[in-house]
Amino acid sequence: MKPALELAHILSAHLHEFMATHAVSAHKFSTLKAIEHCRTARLGGHIDACDSCGYLRISYNSCRNRHCPKCQTTNREKWIMQREADLLPVSYFHVVFTLPHSLNLLCLQYPQELYALLFKAAWSTINSFANNPKHLGAKTGMISILHTWGQNLSLHPHLHCIVPGGGISGSGHWKKARSTGKYLFPVKALSKVFRARYVSLLRSFLSANKAQVDNGLWKELFAKDWVVYCKRPFLGPAQVIEYLGRYTHKVAISNHRLQSISDGKVSFAYKDYRQEAKKKTMFLEADEFIRRFSLHILPLKFVRIRHYGILSSKAKSHDLALARQDLRVTTPDKIAVDWKSICKERLGYDVELCPCCSKGRMREILRFQAARSPPEAAYLLSVALHLKTA
């Protein structure tokens, strides 16, 4: 059976020629190399032996890069388990704030700053509507997740936000949102306020940095309504968790969407939302595919999942505690789970169970370090066999 195509295979075959014609930062280059070498001998690893049947298995180290499609599963599950403890037995709303395409060039020039402004403007908008007695009149919270891509890997910065349907009133009690329909707050009003606040923040940033922009940009930004998309409220905490599982640790493109690489071209599946999410196949030159993927490598140490209001780390001990008390929810114990337990309890497989006899336990007998010229698998297995029988 032919092995499934992975992003690492495309990088291994075409990254060298891509670097010869494109100038990328050291951070982006190191990210691409990490993904290329993920779970290969170049990153080192270890050899396990079954304590029952003697079966030997080589396990190569993961790159652990947040942009790698192979390294998100256990991180995602651990994050979700921690977030489960924060969920309240109330309705939750899903709001998406999107930047217009006319800001794409500035996003490429100042990604860290403009994405940070997106977070700031979105929370400022939600917070102001929540504090307004006309809409809620309470202190609420928000979990926000930055995505920068569209289905075809083009630049499409947007923020997925999860907002509880209520908040803490001035008297310290939980106040339920008035809305029972699709929108937590009026979506057209949200859009106008979000646009005004983001443009104001952007003007201040560009002025402070003496950045020159075409005056026509400001007219263009106000010529059309900005997209603030509201989905129907989640049915309950369980559905919120399912959503978080799909979106939080998502990368620009997952391996299962990749279809083929041939004659220097990459094909991958995508959904055309202009045609009711119809499934299609896109063909790109490998060079262009890598360029588009590189657009979505976030700045070093940039935080792409942020918590605000009563869901922020600073407010949990007070505001979230008040909400739990008023809703009669017990405070959960802190969760500290290692990756092996996550695999067994959440993903349904035991990494230590021998895949050969299904009885013994796999025990580490040899560890090897990352190297420019890593040892061959046959050599490693022969050394391991010698150690096991010695």
From TrEMBL:
Domain of life according to the entry: Bacteria
Domain named Transposase zinc-binding: residues: 10-99
Transmembrane segments: none
Coiled-coil annotated spans: none
Biological processes annotated in GO: DNA transposition
Domain Transposase IS801/IS1294: 141-314
GO MF entry, a single one: DNA binding
PANTHER family xrefs: ISSOD25 TRANSPOSASE TNPA_ISSOD25, TRANSPOSASE
NCBIfam families per record: transpos_IS91 (NF033538)
Name of the protein described by the UniProt record: IS91 family transposase
Phylogenetic placement of the source organism: Bacteria, Pseudomonadati, Bacteroidota, Cytophagia, Cytophagales
